[in-house]
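INTERNAL AUDIT FORM
Audit reference: QA-55
Scope: verify that the stored structure record matches its stored sequence.
Auditor: D.O.
Record contents follow.
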Amino acid sequence: MKSQKPKKLWGGRFTAPTDELVEEFTASINFDQRLYAEDIAGSVAHARMLGSQKIISVSDADILIAGLQQIKEEIEAGEFAFSVALEDIHMNIESRLSEVVGPEIAGRLHTGRSRNDQVALDLRLFLRHQLSRVMSLVLKLTEVLVDRSAGNLNVIMPGFTHLQQAQPVLFSHHLMAYVEMLKRDYERLADCHDRLSLSPLGSGALAGSSFPLDRQMVADELGFSGITANSLDAVSDRDGVAEALFDFSLLMVHLSRFCEELVLWSSVQFNFITLSDSFCTGSSIMPQKKNPDVPELIRGKSGRVVGSLVSLLITMKSLPLAYNKDMQEDKEPLFDALDTVVGSLRIMTTMIRELKINSDSMAEQAGAGFSTATELADYLVRKGLPFRLSHEIVGKTVSFCEQNDLLFTDLTMDQWQQFSPLFHEDLFTVLLPQDSVDAKDLFGGTALVRVLDQIKLTRQFIADRSK
């Protein structure tokens, strides 16, 4: 195969060569070469449409399509020499196409098309494919969390607010909270995927085309549901990239929150879980250490993805219509964020599947910190007291216990009735963590029957979206 010729395909107007520093500074081929499959697919559809519309001959269209397919094979075989002098993936492929089929036929491919609508098309194709990939990984992590929930239905743990013991909850209920976050993440990604379903090809540089292009034909071949309505908007729109980066950012924030809990739970102080050795590392100086590096790193990488979102928004915030070279800065943050999200989801799924749950330690701490105090206040409400008065009485009871190093279960009935004559023997049915959990029998609550509801609904959610 011949090496690429660094001839500018737009060079007719220029009388001086591009400075080498400018070539290096403005080139995007080092990162946008990963769009090769989308670029070739778009070119194949465009060539077929040009032939169908008799803008070029059908035979030339067939030659172009065969040449493009050959180039795709060369790239995938690692035989394609990318050139910085040719700037980007579009020019690299077109230059090679000129060598494969000859410059005259190759030169017909760009009829009715600009790099502006070409790159907009490539990005939409790429994002739609990659969003589907991320959505699939989100479902896999969701399924693992549901499985871990269903397998640990009787495990009680302390629930927290302000990182202080609040009320007992089922461990399954806690895991299902993250499932709800992931379900929302999935739906946001699906919405973004749908909004990217309009083909921009045919918008030209900014004003459309004077050729009788069949834009819908191209859209149909590439799997789009329709075509964009305004050529200026189509070539300058990066909303899909920004929306995807936001969705990735919020997804990573959810993973980060979970990882923060995994780090805490795996500590000696909590001892709620034990992470597999496969997902931890040791210390170079302290032989006993087992560091939760994977959840820490996912937690750290969330900032990286959020940074990609901010980077793109700042780039776009003051650009006039239509295309500007600044918009080349959309791809590196997108690619980096995408790779980070995919890697995080994959390793998180396996890590959750393999972690050990220390149910005895959770249960022991579930009743600490007077976590059933709210149940006692509700008990007095059922006896006829206003909640605020009940709250005060139980608060005084807690204070008494703390001052005397006692638990609720240590108090005698005489001591209980010193705080309120409404306390009777039936109060002992609300003192234990299990009693508190069972009492939350409201849709969305932590009672076992309600957690089973959550699990059933989520399994249906997964099944519906896995078809």
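Auditor finding: record pair retrieved intact. Residues 55 and 400 are 90 Å apart (CA to CA).
Action required: none
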